[in-house]
Amino acid sequence: MVLNYLNIGTPEIIFVVLFTIVGFYTIYQCINNPQLTSTQRITWLTVILIIPVFGCLIYLFANKKIRHQNKLRK
After folding, report:
1. What is d(CA 45, CA 52) in angstroms, rounded to the nearest whole number?
2. Cβ(29)–Cβ(63) under 8 Å?
3. Are residues 43 and 54 in contact, defined by beta-carbon separation less than 8 angstroms?
4. pLDDT given for residue 47 in this prediction
5. Is 28 within 8 Å of 10 (Cβ atoms)?
6. Mean pLDDT comparison of 7-16, 32-41, 56-65, highest-scoring range
7. Predicted local distance difference test score (pLDDT) of residue 23
8. How confident is the model at residue 70 (pLDDT cuts 50, 70, 90)?
9. What does residue 16 show for φ and ψ, rounded to 5 degrees?
């Protein structure tokens, strides 16, 4: 599938769809994370929405690291 009038091909469409799904998943995880205070949630959501690709990846890796540290403490 190629959208010639937008100069978009299949790889670009797959990339956009993939990061849209990852973006929505990250926002969902951020909103439903019980370990975050409301200020932290707002900060993370702002970062995710301003810098979508890198904000999502940073949140997912930082959140994974925090969860791993909390498991080690228990």
Report:
1. 10
2. yes
3. no
4. 94
5. no
6. 32-41
7. 92
8. low
9. -65, -45
pLDDT for 4: 65
* Angstrom distances, CA of residue 25 to CA of 9, 22, 31, 73, 74: 25, 5, 10, 27, 27
Supply 73's token pair: 């403490």
Residue 61 to residues 26, 32, 43, 54, Cα–Cα distance (Å): 11, 16, 16, 11
Find out whether 26 and 48 touch, Cβ atoms under 8 Å: yes
Mean pLDDT of 32-52: 92
Measured distance CA(8)–CA(46) in Å, rounded: 29
